[in-house]
Amino acid sequence: MKFAIQYLSFFVIQTEGESQDAPKRYKHYQTLSHEEYQDSALKDFLDSEFKRIAKRKAEINPIAEQVPTKIGRFIVEPGHELTSNPNYNLFQRLRTATDKQSFLGGGDDLLRIYMDTNSVRGGAFVLALAKLNELFDEPFLFLLKCDFESKIARIADEKSLIARVEMAINARNIKSIQYPHMPEEGMLEEWELKIHQASHARYFEDFLKYVSYEKSKPQIVNDQVLGMVQEYMAEKWQVPIEETVFAEVPADEPYPHAHNHPEGLLQEKQQFDVWAASEKRNLQEKWTHEHVMEATSRIVELQPELELKFKLDDITVKAQMADYGDRIHVARLNGRYVVLIEGDMFQFDKGVSPIELLQPQELADVLRRLEDKARYEPEEME
Questions:
Q1: 244: Cβ–Cβ under 8 A, 6 or more apart, which residues?
Q2: CA distance 177 to 194
Q3: Within a 13 Å sphere around the CA of 320, how many CA atoms are in the beta-carbon half?
Q4: CA–CA distance, 333 with 277 (Å, rounded to integer)
Q5: 282 Cβ neighbours under 8 A, 6+ residues apart
Q6: In the chain, N or C terminus with fewer CB closer than 10 Å?
Q7: What is the pLDDT of residue 135?
Q8: pLDDT per residue as tens digits for the range 127-184
Q9: In angstroms, what CA-CA distances link 47 with 37, 132, 198, 218, 220?
Q10: How many CB atoms lie within 10 A of CB 117?
């Protein structure tokens, strides 16, 4: 995968002070044509960076809420075309540039918009128009942002930036945007772009105000589970499902129309609200095994590879949601929780342990041993 650069502009963003509110300004240093780029000091390391960006994989629905690489989609009103989206129009202006001056003009407008975002820091900002000649006639647009070390930020002229920008880019993880998104070689999605940035940052999400991002898989599952909770409460209390959703109000104020609901519904709804909002959650003991099996089946049908992870005291169990009720079972024994995991083969990591020599007992014998343990523990405590 070899990109042929048509035009490349780089700018330097400079800040006066360390605070987030410090004054910021940018300066254009140079715009290169295809021929000028071929002879520049930038080519050796940026060529591989463009390839790395294009090959970086991302999912429409990411596996976690915070991932470094994600797919954005241009927002348009129903019935409107892509040309109604300001972010798309700006990108298209750069993609259709026919000379250095028009490319620089579009880049200058882009930088002015970027400078109004909250996450702006000093560094190099590179815009590149590049073609993948073996696959497409239309070019890709790349936006690269690299934070400078303070000593590198004090660059006085174009020549020293050319000589030292490699140090800056290699010193920090590059944030990037690629448009259009190429989910597979030979396939383009003109409605989508790919962004890569530190997971805790919002460099480009603040900048691209008219781009949306799909929910992560955990968020989708959360919504599905909360929807099932609403169905459960509606059936239990014999109310329309919309009445299981209360408006968000301060804790010291009553929920609207709470007097119209069956006694106990409001209390249960508040309990579920606290449960759903908690970072660490306990077993709620609300639903039967059959109810949970039905709920997990509905979720697994949409998300077959969904992970199941929980802790029993300080022991971590990691599996797949589909394993519940099939290979992972949860039970009670003498007032304590028991997790049963069944399978055909054990596998141990490096480091020999005596457990690897075990000849397992039958489950009935283990349960008798646990019952004896529970019977004798109170006597030992006395």
A1: 229, 230, 233, 234, 237, 265, 269
A2: 6
A3: 12
A4: 30
A5: none
A6: C
A7: 87
A8: 999 999 888 989 999 999 987 655 444 445 555 555 555 555 554 578 999 999 999 9
A9: 10, 12, 22, 36, 37
A10: 15
Q: CA-CA-CA-CA torsion for 192, 178, 302, 322, nearest 10 degrees?
A: 180
Distance from C-alpha of 42 to C-alpha of 166, rounded to nearest angstrom: 7
User: Global pTM?
Assistant: 0.76
- What's the CA gap between 371 and 95, in Å, rounded? 72
Q: Which residues of the chain have pLDDT under 50?
A: 151-155, 171, 247-251, 257-259, 382
Interatomic CA distance for residues 379 and 254, integer angstroms: 49
Query: How high is the pLDDT of residue 167?
Result: 54
Q: Residue type for 326, please? A: D
Instruction: Report pLDDT digits (tens) over 199-241.
Output: 667 778 889 999 999 999 888 998 999 999 999 998 888 888 8
- Rounded distance, CA 284 to CA 272, Å? 9
pLDDT at 250: 46
Q: Give 335: exposed, middle or buried? Use CB within 10 Å, 0-12, 13-18, 19+.
A: exposed
- Residue 299, Cβ density class (10 Å: 0-12 exposed, 13-18 middle, ≥19 buried): middle
Residues shown for the chain: 382
- Region of 313 (left: φ > 0; alpha: ψ -120 to 50; beta: rest) is left
Residue 330, C-beta contacts closer than 8 angstroms, at least 6 positions apart:
283, 324, 337, 338, 339, 340
Which residues, 6+ apart, have CB-to-CB distance to 128 below 8 Å? 5, 7, 8, 9, 46, 50, 141, 142, 144
CB atoms within 10 A of CB 88: 22
Closest CA to 201 of 281, 104, 123, 280: 123
pLDDT at 346 (0 to 100): 94
Strand-pair partners of 340: 329
**What is the crossing angle of helices 86-95 and 100-114, to 10°?**
150
Phi-psi region of 285 (alpha: psi -120 to 50; beta: other; left: phi over 0): left
How far, in Å, CA of 14 to CA of 375, rounded? 72
**Dihedral sign, CA of 197, 202, 203, 206?**
positive
